[in-house]
Amino acid sequence: MRTALTDMLGVDVPLVGFNRSPGVVAEVTRAGGFGVLAATSYSPEELDVQLTWIEERVQGRPYGVDLLVPATTTVGDPADLVASLRAQIPAEHIEFVRGLLERYGVDPGDLSRGFGAADDQVEGIAPTGVEALLDVAFSHDISLVANALGPPPPSLVERGRKAGVAVAALVGRAEHALRQLDAGVDLLVAQGTEAGGHTGTVATMVLTPEIVHIAGDTPVLAAGGIASGAQMAAALALGAAGVWCGSVWLNSVEDITPVHVKRKFQTAASTDTVRSRTRTGKPARQLRSAWHDEWERPGSPEPLGMPLQMMLAKDAWQRIDAAAEAGAEGARELESFFVGQVVGSFEEPRPTARIVAEIAAECEERIAGLWRML
Amino acid sequence: MRTALTDMLGVDVPLVGFNRSPGVVAEVTRAGGFGVLAATSYSPEELDVQLTWIEERVQGRPYGVDLLVPATTTVGDPADLVASLRAQIPAEHIEFVRGLLERYGVDPGDLSRGFGAADDQVEGIAPTGVEALLDVAFSHDISLVANALGPPPPSLVERGRKAGVAVAALVGRAEHALRQLDAGVDLLVAQGTEAGGHTGTVATMVLTPEIVHIAGDTPVLAAGGIASGAQMAAALALGAAGVWCGSVWLNSVEDITPVHVKRKFQTAASTDTVRSRTRTGKPARQLRSAWHDEWERPGSPEPLGMPLQMMLAKDAWQRIDAAAEAGAEGARELESFFVGQVVGSFEEPRPTARIVAEIAAECEERIAGLWRML
């Protein structure tokens, strides 16, 4: 297939695979698509190791990274920032999470002392932390940097231009797209409300043509609700130059999501996700579980903003994940992860390369089928 | 174009146009699509007049009607049912709506006495009322009866079989589709969350292939987010045999929606709708306005169920519509109507026939464009 995306990135299949597992990223690229590593939770050292590993696997084929790069560049010690943020988490919220964990038999530990687990990630989105991650990324043979946190700073756009690295941005509404285009991005990803993770309210069917109309010559990928060749063909019909898939890889054999979460995904219906602020502070789609029921109960506190809610929740989630892994029943009731409405289509896990091949083949079949309708 | 829908209904374009304006219904059919009259708010006498008018316009071309037919057939006097329901509306809710209208300068009238305006509609969904409407519909040359209120009763399916009238059902999730198939419907409409009116939570991009997979040989139409040929091509790529469009006609010249509501639609963005229970008691997508802000304010009552909330709201909405028509500023702030997220694409109103022709032409262009990508 040939689209503006295959031309821009030099790939065979206009399909971007977004995932935090280096194995998935490498396999998407090796199968003819374009793998993008969700790198926000890596330290610079970890990122360096992972990108080196990916490059050994892909042998010159193109891939990219996804970071949270803030538009404003304040200066300061990340440790000070973390301490200052931590002090802003109300005692009521800490007590609520402690009580929630205890009710489900998960050891809350000494939550009041820390949330240490989330500190790395906060450092990663603090300006100095991001610069270190960007330095690592640009020292590798990347073809694309994606940023989901507002418009990229001019320094990133310039850096991308110089290095021949495309800068991509995820958008959920028209105004965001206009801001991203003003900032000079090379590629827009129109992400519909059905997507996993942070999403807006507008569905892919409506959002994609709206963003394509605004974007002019800038290529637009469709994201949200795309896990099959039929859905990829639909996205191309809407004017997208390709698709950005996230959730589908969570059911691949290379994905690092814990096996008991994957099993929950496999039995979930498309109606079993919820767009909730309880995990990061911003609306993000995830599998509905007892965790969300607890936060929605009358008397529960309102979720905090980002990054406070993320700091509050992330340490709790590490404890929940560990307890669920160890077989604790209550923890498994709470267990969840970011996933889109396509979770309802998950069956047995498949190798990533096979998923790419099947999506591409079905997409071509669907297009041929449409042609025969005329 | 040729699909299972064009074969089943004998139309040129696999596009169903759903609207309460007889003029829109007739024009969709005359333009080669299939018009369906939203007939729930008509009395039997009115319906008879409207269907006679439509038939004069379409001259033998096929069209259908949409009713709310309950699956259970209790017997009783509709007047008793209305009185019994009216008595169940809490005084708190009546006072809240009265206060709301007064704050926006709309005369609430004597709300405590009646909600008379809604009585016709309640009679229309009471079993005896529906039977009278069905008798009228089957005395005309209809080709399809659609039902949005759960599975059709066996009597309706049988009546449809005998008369050669297809029975269609709108579904928003897989379980509903299974129940409709068990009841023997001839056509399923998979309606995504982005649609106007009553909707579920799953987006068209995800719901359509899910329902197509379940439906086997039963044709499936996609609804929600479809107002252009690009979106129609996308729906066909997802496996739909055609599309069911509602919102797009609200911006046609034949549509009977008041002109000041249409103007609000034309300036609205795709993010300006809300899925709210405040108008009918069930989640229905509509244009967000001051009405919804008032119901969401802390201290406002929870919306009632259906049909109580519909009875409570409908009389208020007749007063709001009338006051807005007369130019009252406050009423125009409250003013709203059911519409999907495609409202963001509304520009100048076009004749219905031109909308059908443009959708069909763009759909074919998009399919040809996809073919060239291969």
TrEMBL record, chains A, B:
GO MF term list: nitronate monooxygenase activity
Taxonomic superkingdom: Bacteria
InterPro entries xref list: Aldolase_TIM, NMO
Signal peptide segment: none
Entry keyword set: Flavoprotein, FMN, Monooxygenase, Oxidoreductase
CDD domains in alphabetical order: NPD_like
Entry keyword Flavoprotein: yes
Official protein name in the record: Nitronate monooxygenase
Organism: Thermobifida halotolerans
